[in-house]
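Question (not urgent): is this output format expected?
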Amino acid sequence: MKKKVLGLMLCVAMAASMLVGCSTKTPGTESADSGTEAESDAGSDSDEGGSADGSAKIGITIQSLKNDYWAGVMGKLEEMLKEKGYEYTLVDCEDNSAKQINDIENFITSGCDLIMVHPSDAAAVETVCGEAMDAGIKVMCWDDPMENTTANWVLDNTELGKEIGKAASEFINEHYTADEPAEVCVIGKPSTKVLLERQNGIEAGLEEYCDEGNFEIVAEIEGLEANEAQTNVETTLSAHPDCSVYVGVGAGAMIGSNEALLQKFGGAGKIPENVGVITTDVTPQQLESLAAGDEAVRSIVGFEGSSTDTAAACLEMFEKILAGDDFSGDNHEVYRPTSLITEENIADIQAGM
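Got this back:
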């Protein structure tokens, strides 16, 4: 009888030890200044490179979450990652390359299966991304055609800029002539390579699509974030009170310039019909201003659609990379589509925000 009892106790002890050894859950942590880490009951096995079934560990480093567009898309992406059970860490490098390099080094040390980088400076993170790949980690770049990556999910920023310029040209051609040309302000961020390409594309688009002599660029200012754009547009309006068309590289440029114009003209419903703002990115605030119909926002050049659409397309890229899809050679750059958002199709976009 004593032998039977002892045998039963040994079996129970062995079963308990097996359960402890098979647990893969990693406690989540939070950092107030750098981002969040979510946990997954499924866990991951970095030696096998992760998988596309929710069991991979993903590190994401973003140029800036102060940008309304990025904050919106990343919020939706986090919801989808949590729903599928992925373990992930999302950090904001605060547009600082040294911090972003450190973030990527931490992802390597923690054994991520996939790292997504939205570079502050693509050249600055090439080496550390190469180190990640040498460690068997897959790397995806959002926005830049980098070398040391598994795949790059990119826009042709020059062509995107031309599409913004084309949309602005349609507005200018409707309201201005060579006898009374539009005064135009271009809002960019030339220190960031892809945004400089986008700004150059905007100016090329204006030259290509505007009627001859019906516009003049009177100011080129910076304004990636809304507060900066508003301040700089207000300064531009002091120097050029008749400046009436504002084109820019992102959401902040639209939100800031629209607010400056609302203040100049005394609020919604008082904006002259020949005053307009046209940029890219898609945020709820931009869409609300466009849908209102009585503010300065005239059209937006968007990407996949809503924030939900973009987040879903990004997650699809994650899962293709984790599944081992071939992104070599001509497949290394995966180009994203663009589409024009106007009052006619805005309801469908807002439904997915």
